[in-house]
Amino acid sequence: MDRWGYPGGIGWNRNMRFATGLGLLDFTLQLERTHMDVAFPFIIFHDPADQIVMYDPSERLANESPSSDRTLVPLPGVCHDIMSAEPMAVAERVIPWLLSRAAKTSDVGRTSTI
Fold first, then answer.
1. How far apart are CA 9 and CA 63, in angstroms?
2. Domain positions in the chain
3. N or C, which end of the chain is more exposed by having fewer CB within 10 Å?
């Protein structure tokens, strides 16, 4: 349980280092500038009520990306602890998602022997 009372939470009971916070801010600003370049397949799992990383940018990336293969999976109630709070919900969505794309990729470049 983290210091806020959430089981499996991410609280580490100390302040974030300045360099870590600056790195996160830099990443966020870079993503804001380059989100329209994300043309590869992606899946985002996000709680719409997450108070650490806001949901709106994930929704914006999913809606505005030029990728023809983009998926946003809202997971209400898991806050910022998706993998600990709902590992099976993630696995049930991401495994078929990955396998379907791996099957498409493995067919690329193959020629028929018939």
1. 29
2. 18-106
3. C
28, 36 contact by CB (below 8 A): no
**Is the separation of the CB atoms in 70 and 45 below 8 Å?**
no
Q: Closest by alpha carbon to 74, among 39, 95, 49, 41?
A: 49
Is the pLDDT at 95 greater than 90? The verdict is yes
Both tokens assigned to 65: 């990306």
Spatial separation of the C-alpha atoms in residues 37 and 35, rounded to whole Å? 5
For 8-75, give the DSSP string.
Answer: T----SSPPPHHHHHHHHHHHHHHHHHGGG--S-EEEEE-TT-SSS-HHHHHHHHHH---SSEEEEE-
Rounded to the nearest 10 degrees, what angle do helices 18-34 and 55-64 cross at?
30
